[in-house]
Every structure is written in structure tokens, then in C-alpha cells.
Design brief:
The protein is mainly beta and 262 residues long. It contains 4 helices and 15 strands. The structure holds the ligand NS(=O)(=O)c1ccc(-n2ccn(-c3ccc(F)cc3F)c2=O)cc1 and zinc ion.
Length: 262
């Protein structure tokens, strides 16, 4: 069934262009083979400092829904971990499946999760705009968090309640005072990190990936609301459910995945 979902995903307009950066050898997502990851004692704890007042809007971009933050100053930042510089939060979004059996982009020893959260940051020490950073080797840092189905996530509910208002592609509503830290697992010291890319076009190889070892739990009903979103705009005749908006795992091409824990 997942293969059919992967096939359907590739039919989405998003994927009608090049499926990889020509000559790309650091594409994402990947399968993290836990026993092959290399412990690095130099990896530091993550330091997130998010200001909920910088939360601005939530919108359906026709592939996922994005919660966007004001990134015109260093008010919501990420540093530490594998990073040498300070990174500014610009948005977060999710990827999910039509069933709880799949949906994540990264996998752990081939294990799929029902969904995955991505918090996207850009290097504000080196670049002045996201648009600039997205093209650079050390331009972006994305925190990945796996979602499992279980108890209701109280912090997520405010976001879930906003989704019916952005059911169609290109719909946007104001969304304020949301602290993305509530979506991080209680333990952010244990993670894997590797050099990769954006998982949708432009697929630029500019991302330091930081994948959390600990997952968060959301309820089945909360994920069902994700699946009530549509890939399509209100004007389109055929409405398509926004599900299976994930890319399949890419070749590791000799890269090392480091772990912050033994
Ligand atoms: N899934 S993910 O790897 O976290 C991911 C995948 C794709 C993007 N993405 C897609 C288009 N853009 C984008 C937006 C504005 C811009 F000026 C340049 C971009 F590349 C972007 O950041 C952002 C994040
Ligand atoms: Zn993503």
C-alpha cells in the first residue's frame, strides 16, 4: 500500500520537475541506520529560544500547511547542537500519510512513523535573507521530530483547530502567539545529525538535519484533521486529500550520520 502512496505522491505537480539536484550526493530524507550512526562527543545540546509573539500566519501551500514566523530579527533562534552559527526560525510544517502505517520522511532502521514535523531555520550569522541561505552549503538547519499516534497533544490542538479555515491550497489565516517549543520532545539532547537537502523542490543541498531520537504523541483524531486538508484550490473541480506528502528515502552516498548519544 505504501508503494501506491509513493506513486501517487510522485503524480503531485510538485514532483513534475527534476526529482533530484543534478549530481546531488546529499539528498534528503534518508533511512537512519541506528547501529551505523557514529557517536560524536563534540555535539552539544540544542539551544532553542523561540518567541511566540513572532508567530504570524498559517497557510496551505498545496503540499503541506506552514506556520510562519517573523524572521526579520533574531527573536526566534536555534543554536548549539551541531551548529557553529545562530539560525533563525522561519516556519514549521509536517508530512503525513493517508494511514498511520506511514507518512514520515526520515525512517529509523526502515521504520516509518505516521508523520514528521520539520522546524526550518536559516543561518542569520552568515546570511541576511532566507532566500540567500537556502542556496548555501551551511544555510539551513531543520529539526525533524517523529510523530506517533497516542494521547492527544494539548499544545497542537490550537493549530489543529485552525486547519479547517485553510482547507484549500493558497488559503491563509492569521495565527499568533504559538510557541513551537511545545512541539519538541521533552528530551532534545539526543539526536542524529547529517548534511542533506530540502525534501521538496528546490531540493537544495543546504540543510544540516537534526533528527530527534524521542518522538511526540498526537491523537488519531488530530492526525485525521491533517488528512482533511486538500492539495487543491477551491476552484478546482476535483478535490484531492492532502495525504502522503512525503518524499521517499534517498541514497546515503557515503555520508556519516552522527549521534549525540551512545
Ligand atoms: N521538508 S523540508 O526539507 O523541511 C523543506 C522543503 C522545502 C522547503 N522550501 C520549498 C521552497 N522553499 C522556499 C521558499 C521561499 C524561498 F524564497 C526559497 C525557497 F526555497 C522552501 O524553503 C522548505 C523546507
Ligand atoms: Zn518538511
Amino acid at each position: 500500500m505504501q508503494e501506491a502512496a509513493e506513486h501517487n505522491m510522485k503524480m503531485h505537480p510538485m514532483w513534475q520537475g527534476p526529482l533530484a539536484v543534478p549530481g546531488g550526493d546529499r539528498q534528503s530524507p534518508i533511512d537512519i541506520v541506528v547501529r551505523k550512526s557514529v557517536f560524536d562527543s563534540q555535539l552539544k545540546p540544542l539551544v532553542t529560544d523561540y518567541d511566540p509573539q513572532t508567530c504570524q500566519q498559517i497557510w496551505n501551500n498545496g503540499y503541506s500547511f506552514l506556520v510562519e514566523y517573523d524572521d526579520t530579527s533574531d527573536k526566534s533562534t536555534l543554536k548549539g547542537g551541531p551548529l557553529q552559527d545562530k539560525f533563525r526560525l522561519c516556519q514549521f510544517h509536517f508530512h503525513w500519510g493517508e494511514s498511520n502505517a506511514w507518512g514520515s520522511e526520515h525512517t529509523l532502521d526502515r521504520r516509518l512513523f505516521p508523520a514528521e514535523l520539520h522546524l526550518v531555520h536559516w543561518n542569520s550569522d552568515k546570511y541576511s535573507l532566507f532566500e540567500e541561505a537556502v542556496m548555501e552549503d551551511n544555510g539551513l538547519a531543520v529539526i525533524g521530530v517523529f510523530l506517533k499516534v497516542g494521547k492527544r497533544h494539548e499544545g497542537l490542538q490550537k493549530l489543529v483547530d485552525a486547519l479547517p479555515a485553510i482547507r484549500h491550497k493558497d488559503s491563509v489565516v492569521e495565527f499568533t502567539r504559538f510557541d513551537p517549543a511545545c512541539l519538541l520532545p521533552s528530551n532534545t539532547d539526543d539526536y542524529w545529525t547529517y548534511h542533506g537537502s530540502l525534501t521538496t523542490p528546490p531540493l537544495t543541498e543546504s540543510v544540516t538535519w537534526i533528527v530527534m531520537k524521542q518522538h511526540i504523541e498526537v491523537s488519531h483524531d488530530q492526525l485525521a484533521v491533517f488528512r482533511s486538508l486538500l492539495f487543491t484550490s477551491a476552484e478546482e473541480e476535483v478535490q484531492k486529500s492532502m495525504v502522503n506528502n512525503f518524499r521517499v528515502q534517498q541514497p546515503l552516498c557515503g555520508r556519516t550520520v552522527r549521534s549525540s548519544f551512545t
